[in-house]
Amino acid sequence: MQQGQIKDRIGRCMFKKLHIVYATDSRYLFPTKVAASSAVAWASRKEDLVIDILDCGLGDDEWNSFSSSILLRLGDDYSLVRHKINMAVYDNMQAWHTSKGAYARLELPQILGDVDWCIYADGDTLFTDDPFKLMEFFDESYALLGHRDAPGANQAEWHARHGLPWVEQSRVCSGFLVMNLTWFRENRGVEKLFEFLKDYPDVLFPDQDALNVVCNGKIGLLPEQWGEFTFWVNRVTKPGCFHYAGRPPWVAPSRQNKIPMTSTRRIWFYTLEKICGIKPWKCEGYSWFSYYCEIIKSYFFVFVFSVLNVIPGMRGRYDGVFNDWWPHSKMHKFMIKRLSGYVRV
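RESULT FIELD:
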């Protein structure tokens, strides 16, 4: 995309609302609160931001507590909208990570019937830069834009066995998406997605496989910093949005997997405390003692391997260690000054 085209697109989008959508039930409400709060805190134009919550089974008390706590911490310059989802529609579909909320995102073109574009984000994402920058990628030639998914041989084999397209280079993860809702409405996108799920009940990654097959040829890739998996963050040179896929930071590691706190988990906890006003040791499995012990071990871990990495004969051998642990100075690159009032690293 040429620079002039980007500037022109920004100009056309300048007065549009930006919709960021999260789907959640009671189980994922806590991390979704952190994810949505990070989007609000980093937004440059809060008055043009709409946080849409797909309610996949929340009680009214849960919703009231969720919404009031966000508004109390971050004000009311933005809009927070609840969309109740009829989960009975998905009774005959397989659960994904014990939940069927993933199917709700497939109906966004209908739920947001008057919206052209939206950002869909899972509750295990965390913004570390202005979400309005994603408007640069609202390109009508695409139905979807996202982060390239981690490859899996079993997925490729399943697609080949069923005679379905598998384009690994443009296959995106459904946990963080820029969605062209107009394209879906004009091309029977929602109907095709649910037809796919009906035809292939043994699909491995239900909503993700459906989106990638139905939108094949109309999928674009976002720059790596947008939706980057935390196990690949060493590739990121600019902030954007982290995706904690398979590594929920709000759950303490088990004793069998007791590792020092990774840098991206530390950023999540700083966001939890400074933006949401919740102490990190309120998370499952944590105490204040165990939390600070993990941080101390992380400093020690990074120090030791930083030294080893520059010893003659060992130079560069431990580069891979810093996929998940960064020197203290590098962490600052992921927290811009505008959030200094909320987050201190």
